Amino acid sequence: MDLTYLLSLAAAFLFGVFVGVYRKKIKVHTRRLVGVLLYNTVRLFPRNGRIVVFGSEGGRGYRGNPKYLFLRMRRDPRIRCIWILKDRSVVERLNSEGIEAYYYHSLKGIYYQLRAKVFIHSHSFHDDFDRFFLGGAISVNTWHGVGLKKVWAANKKTFTYKVLHETNPIKKFLGMLLVRTMFGRENYVISTSERVSSYYPETFLVSEENVFSLGQARNDVFFGEFEEEEDQFPEYIKNNRVITYMPTHRYYGKLDREISEVLDLEKIDKFCEEHGYIFLIKRHMYSRGQIPETLKHVKDVSQEDLDPQLLLKYTDVLITDYSSCYTDYLLLDRPVIFYCYDLERYLEQSNEMYFDYFEVTPGPRVKDFNALLEAMTDAVEGRDEYAGERKRVLNIFYAKENQSPVTDKQVDFIYNNVLKLSPAEKSDSEVQDASIRELKREVG
């Protein structure tokens, strides 16, 4: 064997070892490179300023702030409003109701993501759509809750935060290229108050001028708006006195405890029987688990297709922990109990917060089940010492002008600043007929 042959064998062996050791990293970086190229190539695709795509809940649902903007904006025949989903069953349901909706990887779903000039969403554009098809489109992020948790670029555990604080200039440049492509570039972000607006630029990497305090459209159901959306809401909830337990996740569900370790469901069932309530459990979408089916007054509704805001509307007492649901619930001025049994662990292992937890939680803060049961007793028997605190905290999270219906002013904002159109009205029946005709034409 000559030296050249031996060196070739050695080089091939070393390359094989390198690929074997770094295979996962090579795949990740290759996928990212392809993503950057595709996203920026798509920016050249011609977009239609009269097509708007909507998405929410990671592409899994038809609810949240975008839903209520969609319901208003689809009245206008000048605009084609399309809902994009990652769940085919929801697509079929919406189509049967005369709503134009497409699966995100269907031919039409891809086409309209490529053609839309504007996309309105509640999470990030890679959660609610396929990010690679939205290069060059304008984002309106309504977000999905005014909460305590630091998210996106403000959260030390995220890729974005680490890129922002990278000291190597080359790594930081490449990282930011990925962040803008893979995780979203926001053009407009909707906030709820001056205080909330103050930390949105840090969170969403937008300028202060692109954050607008306009409230949350989904909360308009609290004020009698969109009453037609309540027709399908379960009567057993409407017609009962309700305690709802609505906790958030712990590190995307990885640190969640079993529900039986947190609640004595048998005692809660007995409590509800004695006081004439039902107890509903609505966990975060990242959380899993089951409860016994033998309980008469306790029901897990986590997997039911319930609008969370309507659930809050019909809730008499809310129990939560670090979830943003309570800031919306403050608009109803009803008792809130904070079951913060793992506060220290949560702050250390799951999420930091924008606020001091004890300064913005206007209700009893309990750390064990017995204390929770006592707080529930006080609430159902009308002992409420926190009305003044609820109002104070409400004004932190919601500006006074956002403590009433806001959908119309959000639509006006989108028309004037994004679509460059004057708002127009159209009757619901006209919209329904036009929508069905359009759907039939598209489906063929």
From TrEMBL:
<dbReference type="InterPro" id="IPR007554">
    <property type="entry name" value="Glycerophosphate_synth"/>
</dbReference>
<dbReference type="Pfam" id="PF04464">
    <property type="entry name" value="Glyphos_transf"/>
</dbReference>
<dbReference type="GO" id="GO:0047355">
    <property type="term" value="F:CDP-glycerol glycerophosphotransferase activity"/>
</dbReference>
<dbReference type="InterPro" id="IPR051612">
    <property type="entry name" value="Teichoic_Acid_Biosynth"/>
</dbReference>
<feature type="region of interest" description="Disordered">
    <location>
        <begin position="424"/>
        <end position="444"/>
    </location>
</feature>
<dbReference type="InterPro" id="IPR043149">
    <property type="entry name" value="TagF_N"/>
</dbReference>
<keyword id="KW-1003">Cell membrane</keyword>
<keyword id="KW-0808">Transferase</keyword>
<feature type="transmembrane region" description="Helical">
    <location>
        <begin position="6"/>
        <end position="22"/>
    </location>
</feature>
<dbReference type="GO" id="GO:0019350">
    <property type="term" value="P:teichoic acid biosynthetic process"/>
</dbReference>
<keyword id="KW-1133">Transmembrane helix</keyword>
<comment type="similarity">
    <text>Belongs to the CDP-glycerol glycerophosphotransferase family.</text>
</comment>
<keyword id="KW-0777">Teichoic acid biosynthesis</keyword>
<protein>
    <submittedName>
        <fullName>CDP-glycerol glycerophosphotransferase (TagB/SpsB family)</fullName>
    </submittedName>
</protein>
<dbReference type="InterPro" id="IPR043148">
    <property type="entry name" value="TagF_C"/>
</dbReference>
<dbReference type="GO" id="GO:0005886">
    <property type="term" value="C:plasma membrane"/>
</dbReference>
<keyword id="KW-0472">Membrane</keyword>
<keyword id="KW-0812">Transmembrane</keyword>
